[in-house]
Structure formats: structure tokens, C-alpha cells
Design a protein that fits this description.
This protein has helices spanning 4-13, 102-113, 129-138, 198-211; strands at residues 16-22, 27-31, 39-40, 54-60, 63-68, 73-78, 86-87, 92-99, 115-118, 123-127, 144-145, 150-156, 159-164, 170-175, 182-183, 188-193. By secondary structure, it is an alpha+beta fold. The chain has two domains: 16-99, RNA polymerase II/Efflux pump adaptor protein, barrel-sandwich hybrid domain (OB fold (Dihydrolipoamide Acetyltransferase, E2P), Beta Barrel), CATH 2.40.50.100; 103-211, Beta Barrel (OB fold (Dihydrolipoamide Acetyltransferase, E2P)). It is globular.
């Protein structure tokens, strides 16, 4: 059984994620006036319509494309050897050290602690009408699933197919798919919490909510 408390302590010991921003396509790179150790902001707004800090510009066929930070954090490395040079798609440009938020910490813990039921193929997924109604009225954690239960409708290429749940009995603790959006094969649809793990998970969630200090 996963030691959730130990996992939380490990995250506390190294509460960062590092993300490397790469060239989206070929072109000539010009870096923005940024420095190592300085903070950058990620996208903001209701729809993330406000771009993050400008990191660089890549120009191809006289068409400049700005490259923005995708997360808030501190600039760790700037690969200045590529300044003014022609680079291939995927070339690393800037790395950012991002301090994990409460939501991200909970996401990491839950994805390891819960039983993840994953999409068998790329498609759009919907709860069956009865389950969908219960989720909308009382929330996903009001739904208990059993192995073999018809739980989803899988929609692909104008074809709808019922999809049965496979896994241990438990509550739908987390929902990872969005209505009317495609989910790639292998990505989680829901996270199931077995009854004997519910109290432990709730305790850790409360600890994260009360103890984790958000950093800019």
C-alpha cells in the first residue's frame, strides 16, 4: 500500500518542478531581456488569455513568433549559445524552476494514491446519463463504482460505444476529463478511492490545504 504521508514528505523535501521551454519550430532565436534567478509569470486570466513573461522570439521566413513562460517561477538556465543562431524544433531555450502549488501537490499525490481508470483510445468521453445526473446533483464522490459497471459513453468518429469500468470498488474521487474534449489513449478519466483508503487520503488533503505555503 502506498505510504501517502511519506510521499508528501518527499514532495516537501523537493517542492519544485523544472520545465524546459523549447523552440516550437525551426528559426533564428533572439532572447528577451531576462536573467537567471529572476522571476517570471505564467499565463493568467479566466481563459489563460494573458500571456506569460516573454522569454524569446524565434523568426522563420521573416515571421517572428514570441515564446512565453508557461508557468510562474524562477529562470534557472538560459541557453544563450543559441542567441542569433538558427535552431531546430525542440532545441532547449530556457529552463524554469516552478514552485508547486497546493493544487499541483494534491494532483501528484492523488494520481499515485488513487486507482486511475484510463482512456482505452483517443475519443470524447461522457458519463452514462444516470451517473452524469448524480454527479451534477451531488458531486462525483457520491458515486460508487464496481468492476464491470457501465460508466462511460465513448464517442469517436460519430460512433458511440458503452465503456465498462474495470478496477476495484470505490468512490469517484477525481475526474480528469472535460465535457466535449478529446482524451488521448492512456490518459486518466477518473481516480477511484477504495473505501479503506478514504480516511487516509482525506487527512493528507487537509494537511496540504493547511500546511502548504504558496510561493510566487
Amino acid at each position: 500500500m502506498l505510504d501517502i504521508s511519506q510521499l508528501l514528505e518527499e514532495i516537501k523535501a523537493s517542492p519544485y518542478q523544472e520545465e524546459t521551454i523549447v523552440a516550437p519550430h525551426t528559426g533564428v532565436v533572439t532572447f528577451a531581456p531576462i536573467k537567471e534567478g529572476k522571476r517570471v509569470r505564467g499565463p493568467s486570466g479566466v481563459w489563460k488569455e494573458v500571456k506569460g513573461t516573454l522569454l524569446a522570439t524565434i523568426e522563420r521566413e521573416r515571421n517572428p513568433k514570441p515564446i512565453h513562460a508557461t508557468e510562474k517561477g524562477k529562470v534557472k538556465d538560459i541557453f544563450r549559445q543559441y542567441e542569433g543562431t538558427f535552431v531546430e524544433a525542440g532545441t532547449p531555450l530556457v529552463s524554469i524552476r516552478h514552485y508547486l502549488s497546493k493544487e499541483e501537490v494534491l494532483g501528484i499525490i492523488l494520481r499515485k494514491a488513487l486507482h486511475l481508470f484510463k482512456a482505452p483510445e483517443r475519443a470524447k468521453y461522457y458519463f452514462t446519463p444516470d451517473v452524469d445526473k448524480k454527479v451534477k446533483v451531488s458531486g462525483s464522490r457520491s458515486v460508487t463504482v464496481q468492476n464491470g459497471m457501465e460508466l462511460f459513453i465513448m464517442s469517436r468518429m460519430k460512433r458511440e460505444t458503452p465503456l465498462h469500468y474495470e478496477g476495484p470498488e470505490g468512490l469517484i474521487y477525481a475526474v480528469y476529463f472535460q465535457h466535449n474534449e478529446n482524451v488521448d489513449a492512456g490518459q486518466p478519466l477518473i481516480g477511484i478511492c477504495p473505501p479503506d483508503q478514504l480516511e487516509t487520503i482525506e487527512e493528507v488533503v487537509m494537511r496540504v490545504q493547511t500546511e502548504w505555503v504558496e510561493k510566487e
